[in-house]
Amino acid sequence: MDDWNFENLGLYSLAAIYGSFAFFSLFMASLIVKWLKPKKSMVIGSVFYVIWVASAMIPITFENFPWGIIYVLFILTGLLNGFGASLLWVGQGVYISWLSHHKSKNYGTFWSIFMGSQLLGNLIAAVIIGKIGLLPYFISITLIGMIGVYMF
């Protein structure tokens, strides 16, 4: 995005995500997960991730979009994503802990897959972006996220 003169937009977006993630994780997420139950909380949290990923298509698609609106959009969707992340991570912690009491090895399996996906997912993304470009990549990731939310 630096090529499009957005300079520190990624920094501001990540600050919004992790700031709201920390705030909501500390003060609200456990109450909401207890109220909604873990699976529903994870689905709602995943929806906010999909919204944030989909918002990345706007500056790619509309090159002459006002930069101020893009900044506001990214920061707002980052704040929403932080809220969703708190629901997702607290919900998965409760859910995996519950499963681990009833079936062994689930927690270790989850973390093994999650950590492996960090490396493998980034390598695959780099190859795909290089071959098909940013817009098709974000469209496909958004669709995969939507299918994942629907299947859950």
In total, the number of strands is: 0
The N- to C-terminal Cα distance equals 32 Å
Radius of gyration: 17 Å
Tally the helices.
7
Beta-strand content estimate: under 5%
Largest sheet: none
Order of helices and strands: HHHHHHH
What does this structure look like?
There is one protein chain. 86% of the residues lie in helices and 0% in strands. It has 7 helices and no strands. The mean pLDDT is 86.
In brief:
The chain is mainly α and 152 residues long. The protein has helices at residues 9-27, 29-36, 38-55, 57-61, 67-102, 106-132, 134-151.
What keyword list fits this structure?
86% helix, 152 residues, single chain, 0% strand, mainly alpha, globular
Architecture blueprint of SSEs:
Layout: H1 9-27, H2 29-36, H3 38-55, H4 57-61, H5 67-102, H6 106-132, H7 134-151
Helix pairs in contact: 1-5, 2-3, 2-5, 3-5, 3-7, 6-7
